[in-house]
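Much of what follows relies on a compact textual record of a protein's fold. A complete example follows; check for yourself that the lines match position by position.
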Amino acid sequence: MKILVVGNGGREHAMAWRLARSPRSEHVYVAPGNAGTALEDGVSNVDTDVGDIPGLIERARALAVDMTVIGPEAPLAAGIVDAFEAAGLVCLGPHRAAAELEASKAFAKAFFARHDIPGADSRTFDALAPAQAYIRERGAPLVIKADGLAAGKGVTIAHSVEDALAAAADMLDGAFGAAGERIVVEDFLTGEEASFIALVDGETVLPLASSQDHKARDAGDVGPNTGGMGAYSPAPVVTDAVHERILESVIRPTVQGLVAEGRGFKGFLYAGLMIDAEGEPRVLEFNVRLGDPETQPIFMRLASDPVTLFEAALTGRLDEQTVAWDPRPCLGVVLAAAGYPGGYERGHVIEGLIGADTDERKLFHAGTATDSEGRPVTAGGRVLCACALGTDITAAQKAAYDLADGVRWPGRFMRPDIGHRAVELQLHGEES
C-alpha cells in the first residue's frame, strides 16, 4: 500500500517512520516532510505545502496513493478530508464540520454544554470591556484562550487578575491574528494533566496508549505555554478506573454528540484532560488529530500494524481490531530553538545526528530542513524530539536525555524535567 502523510513536524515523522515499518507498506510519501523524513527507508518527501489542498489532491492522484493521513489541524479545519473525498480519494481524518471541535474553542465549550461533557466553567467574549468585567468578577487564577487555531500557543494561564486582563487585551488586540478575535475565559482546573487519544471509525472508539505532555516551557511547569516540550507514555495517572471514566464521560459522549449533530467523526480524537484528586476527568481541550509530541513516544510503543488500524478506521471495522503495545515506557524530550515560543533564528546546522538512532532510541525531526550543502539545519521552534524506551520510566528518561545531549546547535535548549511526575511516583513506590 502507498500512503501519503500530510505535514512536516515531529508527529508526521513518527507516523511516516512507523507506517514505513509495516509489512503492508509499499512506500510512504510525506508532504512536505522535513530533513528527518527525507532520510527514512521507504519514505520520500513531496514538495507540496500542507495548505495547498488542490496541490495535495493532484499529488495523491499522480502518486496513486491508496490512503492519505492528515497530521496537522489547519488543513483539517480547512476541509481537506471533504475535498479529498469529493475527488474520490481515501483520506483519514475528520470532516471540516467535526474539525470545528478543535478549530473553535467557543464551539467546543458550547458542545460540552449540549452533551454534558465535563470541563471548566467559562465565558466567551469578542470585546474587551465585558471580558475585563468578567475577569475582575471571577478573580484569579484563570485561563485565557484564543478561540481559533494558534499552533498550541494561544493559551495563557494567569495567576493574577492583572495577568488575565493583559492576556485578554493582547489576544483581542491581535497577538494571535484572527485566532484571537474571540477569546474564552475559563476557570483554572487543578489536578494532573493527561492526553487521551482514540482512533474512531464513526462509531467504534479504539483507545491508544495514554500519555502526558508538558506544555510549559520551563522546569516545574512554569513559563510560557508552548506546543509541548516533551511527553511520555503511558501516563500513570490514567489508571484502569480512570481510563474507563474517560471513555464513558468524555470520549464516547463526544463521538455520539458529533454523530447526533451531523458531524460524524473518523480519525484521531484527542482529549487533553485534567484528572482531579478523586480520579475524575475534565476536558481542557479537544484536538481532532494526533498530538505532538505525544505521537512520538506512543508510536515507538505501538506493536500493532498501523496500516491495518488506519484502514479499519476508514472502513468502519475498528470493532474487529485490538491494539498491542510494547510494555516498556517511552519518553520524548523536545529540543527547541533559543527564543521559542517567541521569535527564534533558523538555519543553524544541527550536529550529532549521525548514528544516534538505535532500536530503542530515535530522534524525530520537527522543525528541520536541508540546506544547499545537504546538511540538516534548524527551521522551526521545536526542532527535534529525542525519544527512548526504557525498562521503567526512570531508565527511559535517562536514555532520552542521553540521546538529546549528543545533539548540538547554537542556542539549543530543552526542559530538564520531562517525566518528573512519573519518576517521582516510581521513586515513592520504591521507597514504600
